[in-house]
Amino acid sequence: MSAPSRPGRPVAAASGRQVKLGAYVTFQGCTWQVAAVAGASVTLVGEDGQTASVMASFLFADPAFTVVGSPATGVQPWGLLESVPERQRERALAWQRHIREIETGLPDGPGSTGVPRPEYDPQRQSMAEREQAKADELTRLGWPRVSRATVRRMRARYHGQGLWGLIPRRKPSSATGQADERVVAAVLEALRRQRGRSKGTLKGLRELTGQILSDTHGPGTVALPPPSTFNRLARVLADPLEHPGRPARTATAPVRPFTPTVALRPGELVQIDTTRLDVMAINEDGKPIRPELTIALEVATRSVVAAVLREESTKAVDAALLLAEMAVPHPVRPGWPDHLRLAHAAVPYDRLLALDARLQSAAARPVVVPETIVIDRGAIFVSTAFLAACETLGVSVQPTPPRSPAAKPRASYCASLG
């Protein structure tokens, strides 16, 4: 216990409370109010107007000395109190009366009339005994989880913030609860990779999250939560309209576009789609992966005019590469049968060969610069690289409506078949 070095500073009591101007204390069996603090000297004013000047050390050494609660000063925050439920306001007012009774012996505080109950009489019971008596009383009245520590905590709140401090305030719980931050980041990354594509399953999302965790932190470093916990976490983090596990295609017939799509000549309309294949492959580093397939389907001839297979996420440059594959002949690879050559197709082969000698060893596949490309709203298809390539070739880009797989059903179906 130390005295202040300058006049007017509050004096710290042994209980941790401060004796400052306006505070009420009990000294020699009477209630006093602190009128002045000068160095180690404290000036007290009694209820009858009597004044006394005592040393702080002598004041604190008195066995009956306590720092009691004083009437709340200033304007109570009633505007804030109106914003809380009525039940919480009533409970705060009840706590206020209990705290006053603990500290002064009377529920209405200093200056009120009445006789303190024996268990709360400051002249007979210590502060610790009164706190314990109040905890026992509230427990008998049915208040849940009230201990002496609870009473002390509520007293501290009341003296620090007034009545507003007695309102229960809980910290807003995080939407992800106690989930590992590394798992949360991996789930967000997995959702980002699937954004703009056909909705997958929660099981597939969990597998992709596990791969991301292994690539980022090393195999076995971060454990995936159980499937039920993972599913709840994924539903919290996913966009409400793009929840995994709610496939865009259902068992019922999809809603058809308002105007049926008709293509009468090759290259008039091309549909593009990307999907993650339901097969496992071995990467160059020996890790198992699920490759992604991006195809371009020519609607008039029902031909796959270009395809790109990636071991990981498809990039915008891969989508632009599809345009180059559509516009150049695709050579026949060794081992392909002769009937797959363009020379055996029902097209004017000799005339086409005169225009482009590269068609001599080409496969029977349309070679076109598309007039219109139908895309979904995936990030790779609306990227600057892909749109710039289409603009250079004079290709019109037609985005489908959001969450409308029926707008390009042929490409989506072929891509899902792999």
Q: Can you describe what's shown?
A:
- The protein has 418 residues and is an alpha+beta fold.
- The protein is 33% helix and 16% strand.
- It has helices spanning 56-61, 78-81, 86-104, 127-140, 148-161, 181-194, 202-217, 227-237, 316-327, 349-355, 384-393, 409-417, and strands at residues 11-12, 18-19, 24-27, 30-38, 41-46, 51-55, 66-68, 270-276, 281-282, 288-289, 292-298, 303-310, 372-375, 396-399.
- The strands form 4 sheets. It has a 5-stranded antiparallel β-sheet. A 5-stranded mixed β-sheet has the order 12-11-8-13-14, sandwiched between helices. A two-stranded antiparallel ribbon has the order 1-2.
- Helix 9 packs parallel to helix 11.
- The longest helix is centred in the first third of the chain and has 19 residues, at 86-104.
- The N and C termini lie far apart (80 Å).
Shape annotation? rod-shaped
Helix- and strand-based class? Answer: alpha+beta
Rounded to an integer, what's the Rg over CA atoms? Answer: 40 Å
* N→C terminal distance: 80 Å
Q: Helicity, in percent?
A: 25-40%
- The total strand number stands at 14
Portion in beta strands: 15-25%
Strand order of the largest sheet: 6-5-4-3-7
Number of helices: 12
Largest sheet: 5 strands, antiparallel
Summed over residues and divided by their number, the pLDDT gives a mean of 76
The arrangement of helices and strands along the chain is EEEEEEHEHHHHHHHEEEEEHHEHEH
- Low-pLDDT regions: 1-9, 70-75, 247-254
